[in-house]
Write a structure and sequence with these properties.
Elements: H1 5-21, H2 28-38, H3 46-56, H4 62-74, E1 79-81, E2 88-90, E3 97-101, E4 107-110, E5 133-136, H5 139-143
Parallel strand pairs: 3-5
Antiparallel strand pairs: 1-2, 3-4
Helix pairs in contact: 1-2, 2-3, 2-4, 3-4
Bound molecules: zinc ion (ZN) (2 copies).
Length: 157
């Protein structure tokens, strides 16, 4: 479910702050990218965000979208998920886990089970984050008995 307007606004402001903190200039186009990412709970790829933004702002380039997201990820201001295929970017900066659907590939945020536990101390290893991934079928895939009638990812093999 998408975020409401004020949640999206807050998250956009938060991401703009992170952009500034990571030493990048706050430009109009980068703000567009962050605004689009902020309200998106699907963990979009750079390409997906680009497609959406360019409908309304044809002047934006894929490089701007990709570089903005990548720079924030490199500065560890946002997370990127590697779940096969292009990386997906995550605007949710609160600690959380992910549930990934094996059929449609959707990724959703879930509350961390052990949020109250301290991070483990691993000898000599600096833990920055703990990622837990749940695999299975999302509610749509799990309940629909008829095979996907709108299957856009036609995977052979
Ligand atoms: Zn699914
Ligand atoms: Zn997430």
């Amino acid at each position: 479910m998408p975020l409401n307007k004020s949640e999206t606004f807050e998250r956009t402001e938060d991401l703009i702050g992170e952009l500034r903190a990571s030493g990048l200039k706050v430009t109009e186009q980068r703000v567009l990218v962050l605004g689009e990412l902020a309200g998106d709970c699907t963990h979009p790829t750079a390409q997906e965000l680009f497609e959406r933004i360019k409908d309304r702002h044809p002047g934006i380039s894929f490089a701007t979208v990709y570089n903005t997201l990548n720079a924030l990820e490199r500065a560890r201001r946002i997370a990127a998920l590697d779940v096969g295929g292009p990386r997906r970017f995550d605007p949710n900066r609160a600690r959380h886990d992910h549930a990934i659907c094996d059929r449609c590939g959707s990724v959703r945020d879930v509350d961390p089970v052990d949020a109250s536990l301290p991070d483990p101390m691993l000898d000599g290893f600096a833990v920055e984050r703990i990622e837990r991934v749940y695999r299975g079928l999302c509610s749509e895939c799990g309940t629909s008995s008829e095979a996907s009638n709108t299957d856009r990812r036609n995977e052979d093999g």
